[in-house]
Amino acid sequence: MLPSLYHLLRPPVRYLQAVWRWKRLTFTEAPPIFGNAKPKSGSHLLTQILGGFCRIAPYLYVQAEPVRTVKAEGGRFSQAEVLAQLKRIPPGIIGWGYLDATPENIAFLCRPERVNYFIYRDPRDMLVSHIFFATEMHQGHGMHEYYQTLSDFDERLKVAITGIQQEGLYMVSVRQRYEGVFQWLEQPSVLCIRFEDLIHERERVLNAMLDQVEKTGYRLPTPREQALDILREAIQPQKSKTFRSGKTGEWRKYFKPEHKALFKEVAGDLLVRLGYEKDNDW
Question: Any idea which of 24-28, 47-51, 120-124, 220-224 has the lowest mean pLDDT?
């Protein structure tokens, strides 16, 4: 009952808050923003920053639910269904989700009048985060039951690296997971953000995010230093229900020599191509 009531009341309440803040009734002037993410790579940190944009430009709010490609009950949405989700985002509302770089998604999102962000993470840290999330935090995750059958974290990590395909259970390898990341990296109109840079080079990244809005020709109504202060204040990872540690390089605690060897065998030069390692000697 409470979640339903929350989702029912959230839009009008946020609308009234925005009307009071901006002293206006229409919200079509600022360019549409969409925040995209690789799962378990900082999406909730990104949405907190996007929420800050509602205080520096006339946006209503960040939509509560992400645009998804995978259905909660299993299976995938068709491309037409994904586009329908995108088109249902009203003007003035900041959207976010977990979208692949399909030609259709690129054609819709990567237009001169739109702003796009994409956040990704070191694949090793992403795998560790994925396992904790699927095992301990989200019982409805497709891998939850299977991970529970494995003896320990070490065995789960091996499966997360290689992927699995058996009756009723399918997960791609870590290399396959990142094929779509390179497709987003190739899009000049998408600001691609490394999670690690958002943690360790926050000032530069936040400035780049503000620049990305103004590249559309729109002038932010809030002075730059004030806007930066607002975005910094918006980042409160502990408020995310999926927050675990928010640290970088934690994979070193969990990757044993056999995991490193398996990762290198499966992923090849993935880390080098992404810029996380200079070579495969790590």
Answer: 24-28
Answer whether CATH 3.40.50.720 is correct for domain 30-121+178-239: no
Whether this model's pTM surpasses 0.85:
yes
SS3 per residue for the chain: CHHHHHHHHHHHHHHHHHHHHHCCCCCCCCCCEEEEECCCCCHHHHHHHHHHHCCCCCCCEECCCCECCECCCCCECCHHHHHHHHHCCCCCEEEEECCCCCHHHHHHHCCCCCEEEEEECCHHHHHHHHHHHHHHHCCCCCCHHHHHHCCCHHHHHHHHHHCEEECCEEECCHHHHCHHHHHHHCCCCEEEEEHHHHHHCHHHHHHHHHHHHHCCCCCCCCCHHHHHHHHHHHCCHHHCCCCCCCCCCHHHHCCCHHHHHHHHHHHCCHHHHHCCCCCCCC
Q: Is it the case that residue 260 has pLDDT exceeding 80?
A: yes
| pLDDT at 138 (0 to 100) | 74
For the segment 221-226, the average pLDDT, to the nearest whole number, is 98
Q: Where are the domains of the chain?
A: 30-121+178-239, 124-177+245-274
